[in-house]
Amino acid sequence: MNELEMIVLDIIVNAGDAKAYAYEALDKVNKGQYHEAEEMMEKANHALSLAHNVQTDLLQREAAGERTEISVLFVHAQDHLMTSISEKNLIEQIIELRKVVNNLINNQVQLSHI
Fold it and tell me: Residue 8: exposed, middle, or buried by beta-carbon count in 10 A (0-12, 13-18, 19+)?
């Protein structure tokens, strides 16, 4: 495997990890496990940071005149990173909404026991 393929796979793996952590965070918040959800989102952000740093390195190389071979695998990596970032951002918003819903449900349950 050449260097570019290793770099591309690094982007794919880290972006995939980020997406998995974000969905795990959503699952945790749905169960009311807020601390665990925050930990998963921190892991998602870290994985995305790793993937983004690799991408940034490629962009800097390109800007310095080093051409990057565009392959289907490279395009897949870029697509995977972009969708992982978008999904993580949406999941963050869903988590905040879910916290509000959980709070409303808990308040309604408490009122029904009065």
Answer: buried
The answer to whether the CB of 39 falls within 8 A of the CB of 109 is no
> Amino acid letter at 101?
V
- Out of 46, 52, 76, 113, the active site residue is 76
28-61 pLDDT tens trace: 999 999 999 999 999 999 999 999 999 999 999 9
Distance CA 102, CA 38 (A): 16
Kind and range of the H or E run holding 95: helix 72-112
Instruction: State residue 25's pLDDT score.
Output: 98
User: Which domains are assigned to the chain?
Assistant: 3-112 (1.20.58.80)
Residue 113 is among the residues annotated as catalytic for this protein: no
**Are 74 and 8 a contacting pair, CB within 8 Å?**
yes
Binding residues for Mg(2+): 79
The whole-model pTM stands at 0.88
Q: How far is CA 62 from CA 32, 65, 106, in A?
A: 45, 5, 53
